[in-house]
Amino acid sequence: MTLYKTKVCCVIGDPIEHTLSPLIHNKAFENLGLDFVYVAFRVNREMLGKAIDGIRAFNIHGINITIPHKVRVLEYLDVVNDLVRNIGAVNTIVNEEGRLIGYNTDGDGALRALVKGGVSLSGKKVVVLGAGGAARAIVYFVAKEKPSSIMILNRTREKADELAENVSTKTGMLARAKKLANQSLKYEMQDADLVINCTSVGMAPNIGETPLPKSLLRKDIVVMDIIYNPLETRLLKEAKEAGAITISGVEMFVHQAASAFEIWTGNKAPVDLMKQITIEALEGELK
Ligand code: ATR
């Protein structure tokens, strides 16, 4: 192996200290015997432009973008497809001979997690809780799968309306929106097939909270949570108790990483290994 050929990947964000990405990508590179290395860089808002110049100067090959840069990084890229432009956020970049190409693997990761869980969206009613960055990416990817309907429920009604309108206009798939409240939840959950929690309700340290009352959960629905800390949120625990099929946030986290890995390396990602490492790391951290 010639070391000077090592391809460098990184994540840039702020804060960045708790990221699991270097751990899972480096293990995955090692597992496949790839001459790649992954590091984390703390880059504050003011330095984003300079960091992107640095990526070009050092010819860094693959980049993950996280909070707070996912939206603003778009203006520094050379190629962004329509889907990513509509979502308005990028979490993965590949540097192809100096051309920076932006992707969003959050939505893709969520879809892959659903497929892995044996869930097909075609003809299903999907209820999305939340209208923030993660919800945006997921709703656009869900819309491509031709569900029968999409209902977005968000604490701030205006954000849900805006997302529903944008998705409907851009994809031709009708999405509707309401304010997230007990009454709207009760009504919309009656005939829901799949509910995806994209709010931060239930995330550590607020592990006693849930966005969806247990009384609305039943066995013939699929419940997905994008929160992966804790590994099992109160929502997922109660969904399991109600007999529902559940998909944890770890699945989406792992699959968004796997999707980035595949964009950078052209190799199929060792998804099971990446999942195992993620769970071990989270369990270690939670102790
Ligand atoms: P992310 O990028 O992870 O999606 P975000 O863009 O900050 O993060 O979005 C967080 C989501 O969680 C939003 O939909 C937010 O609702 P608002 O748009 O009303 O802020 C939702 N959220 C956060 N705390 C909440 C709470 N206590 N109850 C209900 N929704 C909440």
Q: Please report the distance between the alpha carbons of the first and last residues.
A: 39 Å
Query: Strand-and-helix sequence, N→C?
Result: EHEHEEHEEHEHEHEHEEHEHH
Low-confidence stretches: none
- Report the average pLDDT across residues: 95
Strand content is 15-25%
Instruction: Choose one word for the global shape.
Output: globular
Q: In angstroms, what is the radius of gyration? A: 19 Å
Q: Give me the count of strands.
A: 12
Structural class by secondary-structure content: alpha/beta
* Each distinct ligand: 2'-monophosphoadenosine-5'-diphosphate
Helix content percent band = 40-55%
Largest sheet: 6 strands, mixed
Main β-sheet, spatial strand arrangement? 2-1-3-5-6-4
Task: Please work out how many helical segments DSSP would assign.
Answer: 10
Kindly describe this structure.
The chain has 287 residues and is of the alpha/beta class. Helix content is 41%, strand content 20%. The protein contains ten helices and twelve strands. It has helices at residues 21-32, 48-58, 82-87, 105-116, 133-144, 157-171, 182-189, 234-241, 249-265, 271-286; strands at residues 7-13, 36-42, 62-65, 79-80, 92-96, 99-103, 125-129, 149-154, 175-179, 194-197, 222-225, 245-247. Strands 2-1-3-5-6-4 form a six-stranded mixed beta sheet, with helices on both faces. Helix 4 (105-116) crosses helix 9 (249-265). The longest helix is centred in the C-terminal third of the chain and has 17 residues, at 249-265. 2'-monophosphoadenosine-5'-diphosphate (ATR) is lined by residues 130-135, 154-156, 159, 180, 198-201.
